[in-house]
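Notes to self after the Tuesday call (sharing in case useful).
The group wants a holo model before anyone commits to mutagenesis around the pocket. I volunteered. Ligand is adenosine-5'-triphosphate. Logging inputs and output together so the record is complete.
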Amino acid sequence: MNDTAIEAVGLTKSYGGSPAVAGIDLRVPRGEVFSLLGPNGAGKSTTVEILEGFRRRDGGTVSVLGEDPGQAGRRWRSRIGIVWQRETMLPKVPVRDLVRHFAGYHPSAHDPDEVVERVGLAAKARALPDSLSGGQRRRLDVALGIVGRPELLFLDEPTTGFDPEARRSFWELIGDLARRGTTIVLTTHYLEEAEALADRVCVLAGGRVRALGAPADLGGRAAARATVSWTEDGGHREVRTREPTRVVAELAARFSGEVPGLGVHRPTLEEIYLSLVSGPAGSGTAGEGTA
Ligand SMILES: Nc1ncnc2c1ncn2[C@@H]1O[C@H](COP(=O)(O)OP(=O)(O)OP(=O)(O)O)[C@@H](O)[C@H]1O
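Result:
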């Protein structure tokens, strides 16, 4: 089996002459959790909808699970799961029956009751979709996206409206699917979600790839200087250093033990992300290139 789930080369799409996707190259190996980040209007949904076969591209080549999504048929579609950004219209059918119904479309679906349980809707199994809260409704969308045991799962801002506990349990669910080999494309505005789940993140801005890499390395993050801070003589002190361990060891020796107010701060993914998307299009440097 081909070990590439998604390959796009030179992908372009314009709306009324304005480029939304301006030449993107992507390769996502099977089994990877790949996260697309970027500000509103960056081109994430357009890219993902082309990969899902719901939007026509203007240029470039695309292969998803070995087929061109623009030409692929129902069998291909049944190998893909989608959790849309916007709520989809659902019939007035209880949660459990709806998940069972969706499972019926797929030859090797998960047990629907287990899926309802996994997304935390067991107590609402008999409820109608209309009666669910926003976060519960989102969990139902997730259940419908995963029940078919997709090889490739697209999640477009899946945890919007989730409370913190629901988000954590959703992360566990996604981690579990990933460990079982599902390839996942996650679009999110939550940097901590990308950090918790993604093997690699791709930052899009202005329809182009600004940076690509593991969350820990993105934009030179791993090599970036850390800030070591402490309190001394009643005042705040800090140094920026590439060797925070050495600085902390020196401080520990100097204070003979606990260093008052000690802190070590490395750039967060959010800080790196903001520095990547704040410049003019094309100014992103670190890690730029082919995904
Ligand atoms: N159907 C459409 N018709 C015209 N312009 C569109 C259409 N869909 C998207 N666009 C434009 O294309 C650009 C990229 O939009 P897209 O929805 O792909 O961005 P996004 O990164 O998904 O944003 P968000 O984070 O807000 O969901 C935007 O400037 C948007 O206004």
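Two things stood out.
Residues 15, 20, 38, 40-46 surround adenosine-5'-triphosphate (CB under 6 Å).
Residues 282-290 have pLDDT under 50 and may be disordered.
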